[in-house]
Amino acid sequence: MAFRDLIIKIGPTRPVFLLKNMFNLFPKDGIFYQLFERQSQKLSEAARLLLVVFNDPQKLAEAAVRLKQLEKEADEVGHELMENLRINFITPMEGEDIDLLRQNLDDIIDFTERAVNRMVIYNIPRPFPQAIGDYAKIIGGAADEIKDGIQEVKNVKKFHESLHHRCFRLNELENAGDEINRRALGGLMNAKNVSCDKLIEIIKLKEIYETLENAIDACENVGNMFESILIKNQ
């Protein structure tokens, strides 16, 4: 609940001390922002690992293990966010916005981990297709924008223009991701003289490409959340 809604919810006659027994009216300073920062840091590491995998395929198995751990750590941060949302009466953003931002950050890490996991399970031939590197660069650029944007939502008034630019940049990256996806899938579907083995490889790569595209879409969703927060704080 935003602070501006407090008077409406409490009302002029309801005793505040009763509510204090039910809720934490004044949470620790910045706890929600601190948790979002932790999520964004894990996202940055996940994006970096994806690029490491493309540039050095020998590190695939090691990166997959670390990504699975990152996914678990991000889930724990998400649970902590929801617990703080449950117990705190006053929040810096609308509760729905906090939950949606948490979900979208979590989705990016989940999709990135899943793509690398499939690369291991499906034993994708090396060197990996250039499309995977192209996806990795898009996700890395989006992760940088998101990490900086999380810092700026603490003070929307001060960073209004900068945050708006990040929303625009995340949309640009998503459009670039769409183009990569069209090109990558087109290359798979238009292959000539496909053997059985090649067909199986195409099916595997198609799933990986679509999973990475989902990660990029989730990055744009975070940009949409930033835009929503900007509008609510005009």
Write a brief structural summary.
The protein is mostly helical and 234 residues long. Helices cover 78% and strands 0% of the residues.
What does this structure look like?
The protein has helices at residues 6-10, 16-22, 31-55, 60-87, 95-121, 130-152, 160-189, 196-232. The protein is mainly α and 234 residues long. The chain is elongated. The model is unreliable at 1-29 (pLDDT under 50).
Give the number of helices: 8
Helix and strand content put the structural class at mainly alpha
What is the annotated CATH architecture? Up-down Bundle
- Average pLDDT rating: 88
CATH class: Mainly Alpha
- Compute the gyration radius: what is it? 21 Å
Please provide the count of β strands. 0
Major β-sheet profile: none
Question: Which key terms come to mind for this protein?
Answer:
234 residues, mainly alpha, Methane Monooxygenase Hydroxylase, Chain G, domain 1, 78% helix, elongated, disordered N terminus
How is this fold's topology laid out?
Layout: H1 6-10, H2 16-22, H3 31-55, H4 60-87, H5 95-121, H6 130-152, H7 160-189, H8 196-232
